[in-house]
Design a protein that fits this description.
The chain is α+β, with helices and mostly antiparallel strands. The chain is about 40% helix and about 15% strand. Helix 5 packs across helix 9 and helix 21 packs across helix 22. It is found in: Nucleus.
Length: about 775
C-alpha cells in the first residue's frame, strides 16, 4: 500500500515537471505579459502567489530542494512584483478613463442645454442624411436600411442664429465719451449753480425780514402817524375785517410812483418813503405794509417767490440741415413748372433745336425783340401766410396779467437765425409779483393772503396768476426769523412740474433745518391741513403717464416694491382708462421686521405679512415679508437679569433710539470702557446704533457699551484712574525720550571735543 502511494506521488511530480519552465528562458516582452487585468486586484494576486508557492512546496518535497536554486526564487519574486505593479497601473489608467468619460458626458449634456453650443451645420447635416427604414419586398420578416433619396435640388441656405441670451455691450468711441463727460460736467455745474443761487436768495430774504423788524422800532412814530387819522377799529382778536381795513387805508395813503427794483439796496429807504408817502416799487409797497401790520401786533410774515436759475441745462436743439431743392427743368418761356407734370406736345416741339432756331431769328425791320414776360404757365397754390406773432404774445400776456407795468415791444423777425437765437436767450419773463404778505386770522383760525398792489385780502388766485407759475420756492419769514416752505399753497395747479424742477428734498430739508420753527403751534397744523385741501382743487390726471409720480393721485401699477395701498378696500377717486385711481394718502411704505426694529417698532403677534417680495440677495434668494405701521406696536426692551445685559443673536445690543435702552441699564460712550469692564469683571454689551454702507455692503456702527446702573460709578472711577495713569505714562515716556536725546547730544559733543584736541581739527 505504501508503495502504491509512493508511485502515485512520483507520477504527480513527474507530471508537474513536464509543465515547469526555466525562469531564465522567460521573455517578459511577449504579448502574454501585455494583457490588461481588469478583474484582478492586488489581494487576488497575492492569493495566487500563495497558492503557487503551496503547490510548489507540495510537489517539491525535501528531497527535491536542490531542483530550484535561490537565484530562480528571487527572479520569480521579481516577476510577480512586476505583474502586481502592472496591475496597479492598469487600474489607475481605467479610473482616469472613467473620469474623462464622465466629464465628456457632462460637457455634452451642458452643450445640449445651451443654444450657443449647437453646431447648426452639423445638425442640419444629420437631419438631411437620416436613414429611413423601409420594409424589403422580398423578405417581409427583415428590414433594410435605405438612404433617403433627395429629389429636390439643393440650394445654398443661409442660416442666421440670433443669440438672445448675451447682451452686446455698446462700445463708445472717444468722441462719445468726451461728449458724455461734457454733459455730466454741465449737469453738475447747473445743479451747483442752482443750489448756490437758492442759498443766496434765502439769505437775501432773511436780510429783508431783519430790516422790517428793525423798522418797527426805529420808525414807530412814522408808523403811528400813518394810521393816526384813520377809521380803523382796533380789536383784541385779529380777524379778516381788521386786516382788510388796514390794507384799504394803506393803499389810499401810500402811492406807487415808479418801478425801481434796486431800491432796497439803499440805506434809509424806508424812512425817506415814510416822509414822502410814495414808494418806488411794488416790493417796497408790500414791505412797508408788512412793517405796519407787525407794528399793530398782527402775526404777518414776508412771503417771497425765489426766482432761481434752472436746475437742468437747456436742451440742445439740433441745427436743421439745409435741404437742397431740386432745380426745376428749364422752360422755354422762362416760367417755372412742376417737375412731376409731363410735358405737352407743344413744349416738346419747342425744345427741339430746329424749332428753337426759328424762334431765335431776329426781326426783319431790325428792331429789338420784345422781352418775354415771366408768366407762369401753371401757378402753384398759394400758401397761407403766417400771422405775425406780435398780437399773439400781447394776448397771452394780457391773460397772465391785467396790469403790465413794463410795456411789451412788438417783435420784429430777425434776418438771420443766429440773431433770433440770441434774442430768445436774452428774453426772460420778469414776473409781475414776487413779494407779498400772509396774515394769520385768529378768529377764523386760518392764513390769508394780502397784497398791497391789489389792495385786498384773500387774493390767493390773483397772486398765483401774477407770479411765475408754478412757483418752485415760495418761502415765508416769520417775525422771529423762522422760515416756512409755503410752496404747496401756490403750486397746486401744476405741482408735478414744480417738484420735478426743485432740488433734492433731503438736501433742502437739511438746509432749512436751522430756520425751522422749534415749536409747532396750531397755526402750523391748520396750514398743513389747508395744503392737503388745496391738492384736491387741482385737475385730475386723464392719462396713465400723468398719474406716474403724481403728488396727489396714484395707480396700482405705479406702486414701488415696498409700497402698498391701505386700507385694501380704499375707495377709488375715479378711473383712468379702466384702472382705479387712488389718493396718494392711501399709499404707505412697508418694512420688514428688522427695519421696523430700527424704528423701535415690533410686529404684533399673529399678524400676517401685508406684502411678500423677493429679497435683493443674489446668493440666497428668498421671500421677504413686509408689514405696515398699523401692524406694529412699541418696542419694549427686555430687562437685565442677575446683572447680565440682554443681547441679540450676535452678542450685541441694538440701541437705534433712546427708548430702546433696557430698564436698569445705562449707555456709556467713553473711549476704552470695554477694557476696564473686562479687567473688573463687569458684564457689558457693545451698542449697535445704526448701519452704514461701504463698498456696496451694509455694516453695523458701534458706539459705546451698555452696562447695569449699579456698576456705573465704579466703572467710571476705574476708567478715570486708568486715564490718569495712561496720561502719566505718556508724560514719563516723553521725558525718557527727551533725556535719551540729551544724552546722545552730550556724548556727541564729548566725542567731538576729544577728536578736536587729539587730531587738532580746525573746522570742528
Amino acid at each position: 500500500m505504501h508503495e502504491e502511494e509512493l508511485s502515485d506521488s512520483d507520477s504527480e511530480a513527474s507530471s508537474v515537471d513536464d509543465h515547469l519552465v526555466d525562469p531564465s528562458s522567460i521573455n517578459l516582452d511577449e504579448t502574454f505579459f501585455s494583457q490588461t487585468f481588469h478583474g484582478q486586484t492586488i489581494a487576488s494576486q497575492k492569493d495566487a502567489d500563495v497558492c503557487m508557492q503551496d503547490e510548489v512546496s507540495e510537489h517539491y518535497g525535501p528531497e527535491d530542494e536542490n531542483a530550484i536554486t535561490i537565484e530562480d526564487a528571487e527572479q520569480m519574486n521579481q516577476i510577480l512584483t512586476q505583474v502586481s505593479d502592472y496591475d496597479r497601473m492598469i487600474k489607475e489608467v481605467n479610473v482616469c478613463n472613467e473620469s474623462l468619460e464622465r466629464r465628456r458626458k457632462e460637457m455634452e449634456l451642458l452643450q445640449q442645454t445651451q443654444i450657443d453650443g449647437f453646431d447648426v451645420p452639423y445638425l442640419l447635416t444629420q437631419t438631411e442624411d437620416v436613414q429611413q427604414q423601409v420594409p424589403c419586398a422580398e423578405d417581409d420578416g427583415g428590414w433594410e436600411y435605405v438612404q433617403n433619396d433627395c429629389t429636390e435640388i439643393k440650394h445654398n441656405i443661409q442660416i442666421i442664429v440670433s443669440n438672445g441670451m448675451q447682451k452686446t455691450k455698446r462700445v463708445l468711441n472717444e468722441a462719445e465719451k468726451l461728449k458724455r463727460l461734457e454733459q455730466e460736467f454741465k449737469r453738475k455745474l447747473f445743479l451747483n449753480t442752482h443750489k448756490t443761487h437758492l442759498l443766496l436768495l434765502i439769505a437775501y430774504g432773511s436780510r429783508i425780514n431783519q430790516t422790517v423788524n428793525q423798522s418797527v422800532t426805529l420808525y414807530a412814530s412814522e408808523l403811528y402817524e400813518l394810521i393816526g387819522n384813520s377809521d380803523i377799529a382796533m380789536s383784541e382778536i385779529v380777524n379778516l375785517d381788521f386786516v382788510q381795513s388796514i390794507t384799504t387805508h394803506y393803499t389810499t395813503v401810500m402811492k406807487h410812483t415808479k418801478n425801481d427794483p434796486s431800491v432796497l439796496r439803499k440805506r434809509n429807504t424806508i424812512a425817506s418813503q415814510f416822509v414822502s408817502r410814495e414808494v418806488t416799487s411794488r416790493k417796497m409797497l408790500n414791505v412797508i405794509l408788512l412793517t405796519l401790520l407787525r407794528f399793530l401786533s398782527v402775526r404777518a410774515r414776508l412771503v417771497m417767490n425765489l426766482d432761481v436759475v434752472p436746475k437742468h441745462p437747456p436742451p440742445v436743439k439740433p441745427v436743421p440741415k439745409e435741404k437742397s431743392q431740386p432745380t426745376p427743368p428749364e422752360n422755354f418761356n422762362c416760367a417755372p413748372r412742376y417737375g412731376d407734370v409731363p410735358l405737352t406736345t407743344t413744349e416738346i416741339l419747342k425744345r427741339k433745336p430746329e424749332i428753337q432756331k426759328m424762334f431765335q431769328l431776329s426781326q426783319l425791320d431790325g428792331a429789338e425783340d420784345e422781352v418775354v414776360s415771366n408768366k407762369k404757365a401753371r401757378l402753384e397754390p398759394a400758401k397761407p401766410r403766417k400771422k405775425p406773432t406780435t398780437n399773439q404774445t400781447i394776448k397771452t400776456r394780457d391773460r397772465q396779467s391785467t396790469t403790465n407795468e413794463i410795456p411789451s415791444l412788438p417783435h420784429q423777425p430777425s434776418s438771420t437765425s443766429n440773431e433770433s437765437a440770441k434774442k430768445t436767450e436774452q428774453t426772460h419773463r420778469i414776473p409781475e409779483l414776487d413779494t407779498w404778505i400772509e396774515c394769520y386770522l385768529e378768529q377764523e383760525r386760518r392764513w390769508t393772503v394780502v397784497e398791497a398792489g391789489l389792495g385786498c385780502t384773500d387774493c390767493l388766485d390773483l397772486v398765483i396768476d401774477r407770479i411765475l407759475a408754478p412757483p418752485l420756492y415760495a418761502f415765508a419769514w416769520e417775525a422771529d426769523g423762522t422760515l416756512v416752505d409755503v410752496s404747496p399753497r401756490y403750486r397746486w395747479r401744476n405741482e408735478q412740474l414744480a417738484l420735478r424742477n426743485r432740488v433734492d428734498a433731503k438736501w433742502l430739508q437739511k438746509t432749512l433745518a436751522p430756520y425751522r420753527p422749534r415749536v409747532l403751534d396750531e397755526a402750523y397744523l391748520q396750514e398743513k391741513f389747508e395744503f392737503r385741501q388745496l391738492k384736491l382743487r387741482a385737475p385730475r390726471p386723464t392719462t396713465i403717464a400723468q398719474c406716474k409720480n403724481h403728488p396727489s393721485y396714484c395707480l396700482h401699477r405705479h406702486l414701488q416694491k415696498f409700497q402698498a395701498i391701505y386700507p385694501p378696500d380704499a375707495p377709488p377717486l375715479g378711473f383712468v382708462q379702466g384702472e382705479p385711481l387712488y389718493a396718494r394718502e392711501c399709499v404707505h411704505t412697508l418694512h420688514s421686521r428688522e427695519v421696523w426694529l430700527r424704528h423701535a417698532k415690533v410686529i404684533r403677534h399673529y399678524e400676517q405679512p401685508y406684502k411678500v417680495v423677493r429679497t435683493k440677495l443674489k446668493r440666497q434668494p428668498a421671500d421677504l415679508e413686509l408689514f405696515g405701521y398699523w401692524q406694529t406696536e412699541e418696542y419694549i426692551p427686555p430687562e437685565p437679569v442677575n446683572g447680565i445685559v440682554p443681547r441679540n443673536a450676535y452678542g450685541n445690543i441694538e440701541i437705534f433710539k433712546e427708548c430702546m435702552i433696557p430698564k436698569g441699564t445705562v449707555h456709556l460712550k467713553h473711549y476704552g470702557l470695554s477694557y476696564i469692564c473686562r479687567k473688573l469683571g463687569i458684564d457689558y454689551a457693545v451698542a449697535v446704533v445704526g448701519f452704514g454702507v461701504h463698498a456696496g455692503g451694509n455694516h453695523p456702527i458701534f458706539d459705546g457699551i451698555v452696562i447695569c446702573k449699579e456698576h456705573q460709578d465704579r466703572l467710571l472711577e476705574a476708567w478715570q484712574r486708568h486715564q490718569d495713569e495712561a496720561a502719566q505714562k505718556k508724560i514719563e515716556k516723553k521725558q525718557t525720550v527727551v533725556l535719551k536725546n540729551w544724552v546722545k547730544l552730550v556724548k556727541g559733543l564729548l566725542v567731538r571735543r576729544k577728536l578736536k584736541h587729539k587730531y587738532n581739527f580746525e573746522g570742528m
